Amino acid sequence: MADSIDPVAKRAPSFWSPRIADLEPYVPGEQPRIRDLVKLNTNENPYPPSPRAIQAIREAAENGLELYPDPTSLALREAVARRHGLAVEQVFAGNGSDEVLAHAFFAFFQQREPLLMPDISYSFYRVYAQLYGIACEQLPVDEDLRIDVAATADRAREGCAGVVVANPNAPTGIGLPLARIEELLRACPERVVLVDEAYVDFGAESALPLIPHHANLLVVQTLSKSRSLAGLRVGFACGQSHLIDALVRVKDSFNSYPLDRLASAGAVAALEDEDWFRKTRDDVVDTREGLVLQLEDLGFEVLPSQTNFVFARHPSRDAAELAAALRERAVLVRHFRQPRIAQYLRISIGTRAQCSVLVERLREILQAQ
Ligand code: PMP
Description:
Layout: H1 2-5, E1 38-39, H2 51-62, H3 74-84, E2 91-94, H4 96-108, E3 115-118, H5 124-131, E4 136-139, H6 149-157, E5 162-166, H7 178-187, E6 193-196, E7 217-222, E8 235-239, H8 241-251, H9 261-272, H10 274-297, E9 301-302, E10 309-313, H11 319-328, E11 331-332, E12 334-335, E13 345-348, H12 352-367
Parallel strand pairs: 1-11, 3-4, 3-5, 5-6, 6-7
Antiparallel strand pairs: 2-8, 7-8, 9-10, 10-13, 12-13
Helix pairs in contact: 2-9, 3-9, 4-5, 4-8, 6-7, 10-12
4'-deoxy-4'-aminopyridoxal-5'-phosphate binds next to helix 4.
């Protein structure tokens, strides 16, 4: 195939920098164009963003696109600071939380010791570590797939580059209480503990109130999930100003304008529309609770979720086969071919109608054979 597209493509790797061939890039969930697809594979919000966000984006599109945006994203950082009772100097904004995470890895975790993370977590962490040559040490989650905080804190006390955890964790959906996050923060006061709160709004406790008490805490959040703005690419980090200064140094050595005018305007309006946020978030949480019961009725074991997805396995059916059978019926869920979790499906919470279709298709599949 490659020959017909690009006859000399085979020679391309010789142009690559030596480390590029060894990279194992992150593989995002697929975004196929299938009609009437029930898409429950990438943890998007099934509801649209706040109408005020759409209106603000329209207005921004009509005013000033010929000019560069504010390189400091001040309006957005002020909106985040207002909502969370922080100073604007304690907020950093980026092009999706993935970019913010990447900058944080570059800024804080390039140390002599390894970076600590759970063995089951957001797989992008290992990709950033590899990109920046950061050694990782993965600490096994326990048999219930919960993060082993005591073991992580013990290991951190021996010396590490820092700790990264998603809270709630992905793809398990299980959250840690704040006291456990504090245990990690106290275990390595000289290194950054990065808490990735991509899903926190769906039922977990945010570590943001701990910021004044811990110089080593960096909290990262996104507008992709609870604010329904995955398509806009907006994420932010909060921490004491010395941490934010480091992120700004990385940003300004990479791309001074990560947030465009449309993204800033839409994000500010979305952050200010508390009613829309609460209503859509509560709908997702209610739907999740209903879906858990229906999946359990079908024989699935479902981990306790504090997110907009559930992680579930069927004791007698292979997860890869279930995912493939669902796909044939135009329902997409995520399956990870990874040790320890290969028998689980990660199912994003859709609308009630989408979840009903999922349950019906699963019933058909389980009844056949
Ligand atoms: N952290 C976690 C745990 C995630 O699952 C995701 C979404 N894939 C992200 C961060 C990145 O989100 P975004 O770049 O859309 O802000």
